[in-house]
């Protein structure tokens, strides 16, 4: 991979977008590599949490690559959007939990990729924006849809129409960032959160993720029916036996096997 780094340790994969010269802007090659890398991770049971970040201390991802888009035709623009749709859709729906460690600029496609992750942790220097309308285009990697779902239509429209950059604290205030932490603590903070997640039954966490994602696009009644069905399914697992028995035996140590 030319534009990505991946390290796996203690069942956590840290995937780093690594194009520091362009502040980790996403070109088509990077999107394709990300898609391949996530497809590989999806099939690995030894990875429970994925942390996505950008290289350096200035930028998470400064957006789609403007130098690639400047001469692109409508068909090429659409192809780029579809490539991002596939990679970001994979990120959003993969069985592992995904955390965006936002270590600086999260602009355009950068804000959009962070929103395809389950959880966003922002460094104090993080800045979020959807600057596309200032470039004569509109958000094309999910911003019009995921931002509105995450922070509400009113705030999403304001960010997209004004192109205003908001800082980490404002992102936290509107629910775009789950936490704001000092830059030097960012990765450790995300890894510690991953550790707390991994103490719980991995299959149950994965099912909960699927139900939250699928339910978000349903009416409440159908979402609750889906929840009841998958709740029932979780009773068939070894981990349910283990989790409940450990509680009744007043045993802190639990041995989940992911089945
Ligand atoms: N695409 C391509 N190159 C980019 C880039 C991008 N999105 N963002 C930054 N770069 C490049 C710059 O061109 C510059 O390259 P050179 O050194 O070769 O000149 C290098 O990264 C460093 O950037 P700056 O000199 O501009 O750094 P700065 O500190 O002055 O400014 C910044 C930082 C505010 C992030 C500024 O670079 C910027 O505004 N970048 C563009 C942000 C943007 O508009 N993103 C949205 C893209 S459109 C999109 O994402 C569509 C979509 O929905 C998917």
Automatic annotation (TrEMBL):
The keyword Lyase applies. Coiled coil: none annotated. Keywords: Lyase. Pfam families: ECH_1. InterPro entries: ClpP/crotonase-like_dom_sf, Enoyl-CoA_hyd/isom_CS, Enoyl-CoA_hydra/iso, Enoyl-CoA_hydra_C. It comes from the Bacteria. The keyword Lyase applies. Belongs to the enoyl-CoA hydratase/isomerase family. This is Enoyl-CoA hydratase-related protein. It comes from Intestinimonas massiliensis.
């Amino acid at each position: 991979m030319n534009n990505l780094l991946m390290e796996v340790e203690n069942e956590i994969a840290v995937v780093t977008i690594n194009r520091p010269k362009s502040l980790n802007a996403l070109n088509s090659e990077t999107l394709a590599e990300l898609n391949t890398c996530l497809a590989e991770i999806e099939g690995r049971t030894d990875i429970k949490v994925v942390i996505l970040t950008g290289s350096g201390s200035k930028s998470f991802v400064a957006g789609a690559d403007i130098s690639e888009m400047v001469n692109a035709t409508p068909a090429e623009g659409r192809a780029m959007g579809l490539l991002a749709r596939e990679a970001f859709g994979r990120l959003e729906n993969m069985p592992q939990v995904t955390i965006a460690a936002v270590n600086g600029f999260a602009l355009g496609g950068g804000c959009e990729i962070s929103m395809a992750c389950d959880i966003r942790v922002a460094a104090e220097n993080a800045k979020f924006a959807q600057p596309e309308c200032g470039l004569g285009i509109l958000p094309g990697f999910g911003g019009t849809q995921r931002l509105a779902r995450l922070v509400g239509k009113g705030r999403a429209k304001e960010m997209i129409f004004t192109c205003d950059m908001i800082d980490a604290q404002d992102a936290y205030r509107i629910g775009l960032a789950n936490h704001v932490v000092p830059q030097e603590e960012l990765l450790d903070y995300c890894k510690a959160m991953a550790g707390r997640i991994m103490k719980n039954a991995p299959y149950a966490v994965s099912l909960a993720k699927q139900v939250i994602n699928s339910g978000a696009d349903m009416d409440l009644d159908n979402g609750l029916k889906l929840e009841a069905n998958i709740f029932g399914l979780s009773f068939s697992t070894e981990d349910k036996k283990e989790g409940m028995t450990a509680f009744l035996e007043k045993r802190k140590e639990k041995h989940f096997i992911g089945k």
